[in-house]
Amino acid sequence: MSCPHCDADVVAFAVPSALREHAPADAAAICTRCLRVVPASETGVDGRATADPDLSAVDPAFPSGEAGIALALCCGKLESFALNRESIEALIGHAERAGADVFAFLGRLDAADAAFDLDRRRAALIDAL
């Protein structure tokens, strides 16, 4: 029921078919502290994965629905922008098409304990997009 990296709580979610190529599994979980995304089975919450997760438990900045799931998966990729750039761009595009303002989200996201430097990733995303 906790993150395998930092032992914090996680939020499990079912990955929509349109996003599965960017996910570690059909059911994934995002850590409420380090923002890493792992297969839900690694956290013991795979039975709680839902298509409409309450991602506000991670941060109130998360939108609901597919936009939120796309941004959760994106957070899981931000630890290595260079290796995951294609996936990150696809996830951002999906989130925008689902109604999210990605840069407003990244500006409000509290990532003080994240596994990545949000300020550096935000700057890289602005340059890339």
Helix content: 25-40%
The stretches of 5 or more residues where confidence is low (pLDDT under 50) are none
Largest sheet: 3 strands, antiparallel
CA-based shape = globular
Distance between the termini: 36 Å
Tell me the strand percentage band: 5-15%
Indicate the structural class.
alpha+beta
- Number of helical segments? 4
Task: Quote the average pLDDT.
Answer: 94
Number of strands: 3
Strand order of the largest sheet: 1-2-3
- Computed over alpha carbons, the radius of gyration is 13 Å
Order of helices and strands: EEEHHHH
Overview of this structure, please?
With 129 residues, the chain is an alpha+beta fold. The chain has helices at residues 65-77, 81-97, 102-108, 118-128, and strands at 10-14, 27-31, 37-39. Strands 1-2-3 form a three-stranded antiparallel beta sheet. Strand 2 (27-31) and strand 3 form a beta hairpin. The model has no long low-confidence stretch (mean pLDDT 94).
Tag the structure with descriptive keywords.
single chain, alpha+beta, globular
Briefly summarize what is shown.
The chain is of the alpha+beta class. The chain contains four helices and three strands.
Which SSEs are present, and which pair or pack?
Layout lengths: L9 E5 L12 E5 L5 E3 L25 H13 L3 H17 L4 H7 L9 H11 L1
Antiparallel strand pairs: 1-2, 2-3
Helix pairs in contact: 1-2
